[in-house]
Each structure stands twice: as structure tokens, then as C-alpha cells.
Amino acid sequence: MKDILTIGGRDFTSRLFVGTGKFASNELMLQSILASGSEMITVAMKRIDMQNEEEDDMLRHINREHVQFLPNTSGVRDAKEAVMAAHLARECFGTDFIKLEIHPDPKYLLPDPIETLIATEQLAKDGFHVLPYIQADPVLCKRLEEVGSACRNASRRTYRHQQRSEDPRSSGDHHSRKPRPGCDRCRTWSTVTCR
């Protein structure tokens, strides 16, 4: 029996989400997606020409019947921009799934927790399945859950930092301690909890 992950009413047999950036070629990207077995791939809106979908080199390589597109709001700096970007992504990609990324400082790419919470609440009301990118913060995770987040993605930078921290409450593998609220034992590299 396979372990099923359900997000936004859709079942996934893989808990691995794969990005489409940083590949040397689209052929290599496709090979990586197929080899990973991932059923959800993140896509930066700025990389896709949805007006010429037939000719867009990246889209020709992705079978959208087998994978869920997860457009992201990378590049936005506040909740207002994020909500606008999510609505554009819905129109372009035809999906209610959105990876919410709000980075007020493009140099460090650390997520803004306040703007993320505000945008998540609005997008959930607008019918989106929001997967916010956040720092490893169980209080924020709980608040995001309360406003309708479908899933929380902890920042790898923060998670790694907490693993090396001198604070005994955040050092080492956090699964060796009592599980935090909403953790569900982190079944992928970044997913804190999903529903």
C-alpha cells in the first residue's frame, strides 16, 4: 500500500516536489522529473510563455496529465503583489495550486512571515490551494493552517541553520525530540505539514 499525500483534494503518491529551474537543458529537466517520480513541479511564471504554449520549449517537455504544475510567486515583495501574481498564475496555468513566495530582500531570499500570512488568508478565501514558503516556525505554521493554507514549505536555509544551532531545542534532527504541532514527521525535504 502506497503512502498517499492529499493536497487540495488531489492525491499524490510522491512527496517529492521538483523545480524546473537551474537545468542545463529542457531535456535534462525532463529526464530529472521522470527519474524523480515527482507528481508536482514548481514553475516560475517568468519562464513560461503561456500565450505560445505550443512553441514554448519548456512546456513541450512536460506532460501535464501526469504532473501538477505549482506556479510560484517568486519575485514579489509583499502580500498585494503576491495575490496579483497568484491570480495571473491561475489564468495562465489553469490551476488553483500556488507556491507562495514573498521575499522583500532579493539578496537573501528569506520569506516574510507577516506578508505571507496576509497573502495566504486572502488567497485561501479566493479558492487557492496555497503552499507558502516559510521559515521553520511552528507558531506561523499553526496560524497559516488556521487561515486556510494547504501546506507549509519550510525554508531549507532556516531549517539547516536550526539543525546547527547551539540552542538544544533546535539542534540536530528535530524528529529525535517530541514532534512539533503540525510536523507529520516531515516526509519530504521541506514539507512541514499538509492536509
Q: Order of strands across the biggest sheet? A: 6-7-8-9
Q: Compute the number of helices.
A: 5
Helix content: 25-40%
Gross morphology is globular
Calculate the mean pLDDT score and round it: 78
| Helix/strand order | EEEHEEHEHEHEHE
- Count all strands and give the number: 9
Low-pLDDT sequence parts: 158-195
Biggest beta-sheet profile: 4 strands, mixed
What amount of the residues lies in strands?
Answer: 15-25%
Q: What do you see in this structure?
A:
There is one protein chain. With 195 residues, the protein is an alpha/beta fold. It is 30% helix and 19% strand. The protein is built from 5 helices and 9 strands, in the order βββαββαβαβαβαβ. It has helices spanning 26-36, 79-93, 113-125, 138-147, 156-164, and strands at 5-7, 10-12, 17-19, 40-44, 68-72, 97-100, 129-134, 151-154, 191-194. The strands form 3 sheets. It has a 4-stranded mixed β-sheet. It has a 3-stranded parallel β-sheet with strand order 3-4-5. A two-stranded antiparallel ribbon has the order 1-2. α3 links the parallel β6 and β7. α2 crosses α3 and α3 (113-125) runs parallel beside α4. The protein is globular, with a radius of gyration of 17 Å. The two termini are 19 Å apart. The relative contact order is 0.12.
